[in-house]
Write a structure and sequence with these properties.
Elements lengths: L1 H21 L3 E3 L2 E10 L5 E8 L8 H6 L16 E3 L7 H9 L3 E3 L4 H10 L11 H4 L3 H10 L3 H5 L5 H20 L4
Parallel strand pairs: 4-5
Antiparallel strand pairs: 1-2, 2-3
Length: 187
C-alpha cells in the first residue's frame, strides 16, 4: 500500500515538472518564474527575446539571443550584425567573446577578475588582455530601462500567462507597441 502512494507522488511530481517546463517556468529563489533574455538597441527599444526558465543563467543564452537579431531595412535582407554588443561580466567567456568576433561585431564585455588573474599568472603565453570600452559599456543601462517599459504592462510583469507561447506573444506585442509609439507623433 505504501509503495503505490509513493509512486503516485513521484508521478505527480514528474507531471508537475513537465507542465512547468512546457510553460517555460523554472524554480528560482522566489518560486516558479521565467527569465527574459533580450537584445536592445541604443535607444532602449527591444530587438529580440529569448524566454527561459527562471533558474537559467545569462551566459549560455548570449549567442542564442544574438542570433535572433533581425532588423529590416528599406531594401534587401534584414540586418543581423550590430556594430557593438555590450554585456555584463556574467557573459565573459571565451565562447561568448568568439561569437561576436566571428561575425565582426565589437564585444564590450568586461573581464572577470579571476580571468584576469589567470591570464597574468600564465604570463606571455596567455595572450593579450581583452579590449574594453567603458563609454560603450556605460550605455548598458538602456536594457534595464527597456525592461521597465515592458513591465509597465501587467501581463509581462506578473507572468500570468499559462503557456510560454502566449507569454512570449505578450512580450512581442508590448515591443511592437513600443516601436509604434516611436513612429507616431505625440503632437
Amino acid at each position: 500500500m505504501g509503495t503505490s502512494i509513493g509512486q503516485d507522488r513521484a508521478g505527480l511530481r514528474r507531471r508537475r515538472k513537465a507542465r512547468a517546463e512546457a510553460a517555460g517556468l523554472g524554480r528560482s529563489r522566489g518560486g516558479l518564474s521565467s527569465r527574459i533574455h533580450a537584445v536592445v538597441d541604443v535607444g532602449g527599444m527591444p530587438l529580440a527575446f529569448v524566454l527561459t526558465p527562471g533558474q537559467a543563467a545569462d551566459s549560455p543564452r548570449f549567442q542564442a539571443v544574438l542570433n535572433k537579431i533581425r532588423v529590416p531595412g528599406e531594401v534587401g535582407r534584414p540586418h543581423t550584425r550590430p556594430g557593438a554588443v555590450a554585456a555584463d561580466k556574467a557573459c565573459s567567456s571565451k565562447a561568448n567573446r568568439a561569437c561576436p568576433r566571428r561575425r565582426r561585431i565589437t564585444a564590450v564585455i568586461p573581464e572577470k577578475s579571476d580571468q584576469q588573474a589567470n591570464r597574468k599568472r600564465k604570463g606571455s603565453t596567455s595572450g593579450r588582455p581583452v579590449s574594453f570600452d567603458p563609454v560603450l559599456y556605460a550605455q548598458r543601462n538602456t536594457v534595464e530601462s527597456c525592461f521597465q517599459k515592458i513591465k509597465t504592462w501587467r501581463g509581462p510583469a506578473t507572468r500570468s500567462d499559462k503557456s510560454a507561447e502566449s507569454y512570449e506573444a505578450g512580450l512581442r506585442l508590448r515591443a511592437a507597441v513600443m516601436w509604434l509609439r516611436t513612429l507616431t507623433s505625440t503632437t
